[in-house]
Amino acid sequence: MNEQQKLLQRIRALNFAVIDAGLYLDTHPDCRQALAYFRKHQAALKAAKAEYTQKFGPLTLTGQTGDERWDWIDGPWPWEGKV
User: Fold this and answer.
1) Of the candidates 22, 70, 74, 79, which has an alpha carbon nearest to the alpha carbon of residue 52?
2) Distance in angstroms (rounded) separating the CA atoms of residues 43 and 40
3) Distance (Å, rounded) from C-alpha 7 to C-alpha 48?
4) What is the DSSP code string of the chain?
């Protein structure tokens, strides 16, 4: 598994943790431990996505950064890997 694949796997795992914690918090809104867990994993997910974008290009349309033109189409798609 290369660096890009490892980072994508980490993003998927962190995304799952955030969603799962959010669902738990829907029924346990006063659980401070769950809220801390959610915030920790939310921050880690944000950092992992930023790292991916910096190293491999935008992961989603919202990561598109071109000011002068639509640069989403310039690189390989996230599932194709960097050429």
Assistant:
1) 79
2) 5
3) 7
4) --HHHHHHHHHHHHHHHHHHHHHHHHH-TT-HHHHHHHHHHHHHHHHHHHHHHHHH--SSGGG---SSS-GGGTS--TTT---
CA distance 45 to 24: 18
* pLDDT per residue as tens, the chain (83 positions): 899 999 999 999 999 999 999 999 999 999 999 999 999 999 999 999 999 988 988 887 776 666 777 766 777 776 776 54
Yes or no: say if 31 and 25 are a contact pair by the CB < 8 Å rule. yes
CA 26, distance to chain mean position in Å, is 22
User: pTM value?
Assistant: 0.79
Place of tokens 């890009």: 4
Q: What's the length of the chain?
A: 83
